[in-house]
Amino acid sequence: MAGRKGPLFIVSGPSGSGKSTALRRLLSQTNLPLKLAVSATTRPPRPGELDGVDYYFWSRDRFERELAKDSFLEWAEVFGNYYGTLRSEVEPAREQGQGVILEIDVNGARQVRQRCPDAVSIFLRAPSLETYKERLEARGTENEETIQRRLARIQTELQCASEYDYQVINDDLQATVDRLAEMVQQGFERRNHA
Ligand code: ADP
Ligand code: 5GP
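A: This is the predicted complex of the input protein with adenosine-5'-diphosphate.
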């Protein structure tokens, strides 16, 4: 409905659960006005990742300057790097009726839930603990030390799953994308009937 603010979605899940892959496919398939907010991070780009597309790749200095200016809707330190959602990636789009998805960690999700109680939150998990390791190794973008660091955080993140409105087990990728698409559709419909 014209004039209504676009819905906000939070997607979290342990590293290797398939968030980026599922969201990329969702965005390529949907007809809804939907965008993925580009986060800022101090982690270095992986091969193929582009500045301004996958992330804004910033120095710690730059990130801290933006923090001081209150530019972030939320931020967290994850795996030794800063990650944060810029307000400018979210608010103008929502004002224009666009839905916005945040792919953020569990600490960031808590901050967003407090600030935006209308946000719909989704926790994505792999079918088993072994699957995370297999998927991270298959992705081949991290060295063994970084993979171990990511695996060590899985249990902590899984303990937060019940804080989310929905949980999705990402076994078959297309089934996951279809489930996410339903949730997003519902988010738009709820907004229209509010
Ligand atoms: P995250 O963003 O949660 O860290 P990715 O989307 O990068 O995870 O996925 C990690 C790896 O697992 C990638 O290589 C991706 O292609 C693969 N993957 C994602 N979803 C599935 C799935 N449903 N079945 C098999 N492999 C998957
Ligand atoms: P990656 O380095 O694999 O891209 O992301 C690592 C973790 O940081 C993931 O759990 C991802 O969801 C989280 N993350 C990415 N962007 C943000 C953000 O803007 N804020 C927060 N809090 N976490 C983020």
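The CA atoms of residues 133 and 189 lie 37 Å apart. The mean pLDDT is 96.
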